[in-house]
Structure formats: structure tokens, C-alpha cells
Amino acid sequence: MEQLNPIYDSTANDGFFDFSRQDNGLTDAALNSVILELVKSIDIKHLLSVYFKQLQRFTSIKGICLQFDDERLSRGDTTPAMQSHKLDYRIEHRVYASVTYYDAKLVDVRDWRYLHSLHKCFTNPLKNALEHLMIKRLATKDHLTSLGNRVCYEETLNKLISQAYRKGDSFSLLALDLNKFKAVNDTYGHQTGDKVLTVFSQVLQHCLRDIDHAFRLGGDEFCCLLVDIDQEESQLVMQRIHKMVAENKLLKKYNVSCSIGAAIFDKLDTSDSLFARADEELYSQKKA
């Protein structure tokens, strides 16, 4: 990944700043202490928390928002009532990430100079964290459908099981596969088969809530993890999937449907036993 370059407003005269107070900026010792804290983390969420803590240490900033790709992460008070100012990071003139700073009052020149220095210190740690996140996503996504892959499924399932033990949260596992998919591949070729898989994945995502998770485990085998849900609600999701698949033009054209098996997590379950119960129901559905 190319170096991220911070871009600053050279005038800084946009209603966010108060020029009545001035200072020469942070000392080298202070900047080094900030850098030492920032380089300790490569996780983007933790890094943002560390950076916000350093901002609070040296400035009056009350909130911060980091935007990159389609994500928005914030810390502190970022309500519209706050004064705000956005600074961009660019790669070859393209905005790669943006940081918006929030304060309850106008930022004086001393804080602006401190903020300028801190923002610059954030450059390389941010670059490393975003690069790490990109690599992690590539390693946990199915390249054809952009759903989570088996690695992502196992990580997410283990987290949900851990939360269920600690907090008593409920969740459901759906095991899905496509009916008559092999005939599509055999008759129309793998390119058409890939299109069917991609469209089915889109239908699946459309049927889930933002807090739910969808995965492609391989071939035409899929799985969903439905968070904070009971048996009745799980059945409603299954009905919605069946309905959307039946109504989709492409899937209807190739006579493709899906079979679904569901299992609600029980505290006696392991990850294997939970999937086995859903898989057993799936195959009973296929035989029906």
C-alpha cells in the first residue's frame, strides 16, 4: 500500500479556529510519547481509541470520527451541535481516509498546532492498521460472493458462543444449500453457475439484518448466524429467504431453490454439534 499523505487546510480559517491564542506546538518528547502509544496497536478500532486518548491529553477535542471505504468509526461526542473540522489522508490525490475532529468551542491556534502535529503522527499507524484490516478482510472473505468464508464463519461462531456463555445471548445457525445447482453447472457451465451463486448471495444478504452474518462455506453450501433471535423469529427469516429465492428472476430461470436447516444455540452445544443439528434438519428438508 502506498504511503498515506496527510493534507491540511493551510488557512484553517473556516469557523472552527480561534486565533486569539498562540503556541509553538508540541515538544519532540511529547510527540515521541504519542508515537510510542500509537505504534502499540494495529487493530483499527483500538488504534482510534488510543489516538482519541492522546487528543484528549493535549487538546480540547471532544470527539473524533474516522471514515474509510464504507466504514465510519467514532469516539467521544460527535453530535451535530459540536464544532467540526475534517482533515483528509490522500493517496495520489485520492482521499483514502478522513478524520473529522469535534469540539464544543472554537479551537485556538495552540490546539490547532497540537492537532496538526498529532494528526501527522497518526499517519503511519493509520496506514499500517488499514493495511492490516485489508489483508484480514481478504483472508476472511469469499472472493466470488464477498460473503464471509469458512475462516470468518468459525471466528464469528466462536465469538457468539463465548458471548452466549457470558451474557446468555441467543443466536441461530442456518445451514443452506442450493437445489438443482449441479444441473446448472453441467448444462450451462461454471460461468453461469458462478452468477447463480452471486445472485443467491445477494438475496441472502437482503433477507438478513445488519447484525446478522452470512457465509459461503464452499460450492453451493452457505451458512447464516442470526444474532439475538429465537426459534419463531428464525423461522420467519427462513420463510423470507424461501420467498425471495422463489421470486428472483435469475434463480427462477434456472429452476434453483434452496433448502435450509436451523438450530438455536443451546449451552450444551459445541460449534460442531450446533452445525450438525442444523445440517441434519437441512438434509431432512431436502429429502421431504
What would you note in describing this structure?
This protein has 288 residues and is an alpha+beta fold. It has 2 domains: 5-139, GAF domain (Beta-Lactamase, 2-Layer Sandwich), CATH 3.30.450; 142-287, Alpha-Beta Plaits. The protein is built from 10 helices and 11 strands. The strands form 3 sheets. A 5-stranded antiparallel beta sheet has the order 1-5-6-3-4, with helices on one face. Strands 9-10-8-11 form a 4-stranded antiparallel beta sheet, with helices on both faces. It has a two-stranded parallel ribbon with strand order 2-7. The longest helix is centred in the middle third of the chain and has 18 residues, at 123-140. The protein is elongated.
Chart the SSEs and their pairings.
Elements: E1 5-7, E2 17-18, H1 28-38, H2 44-58, E3 63-68, E4 71-76, E5 83-91, E6 94-103, E7 107-108, H3 109-121, H4 123-140, H5 150-167, E8 171-179, H6 181-188, H7 190-207, E9 213-218, E10 221-227, H8 231-247, H9 249-253, E11 257-264, H10 271-287
Parallel strand pairs: 2-7
Antiparallel strand pairs: 1-5, 3-4, 3-6, 5-6, 8-10, 8-11, 9-10
Helix pairs in contact: 2-3, 6-7, 7-8
Outline of this structure?
By secondary structure, the chain is α+β, with helices and mostly antiparallel strands.
Would you report the number of β strands? Answer: 11
Task: Identify the CATH homologous superfamily of the largest domain.
Answer: Reverse transcriptase/Diguanylate cyclase domain
Major sheet: arrangement of strands: 1-5-6-3-4
**N-end to C-end Cα span:** 52 Å
User: Can you tell me the CATH class of the largest domain?
Assistant: Alpha Beta
Total number of helical segments?
Answer: 10
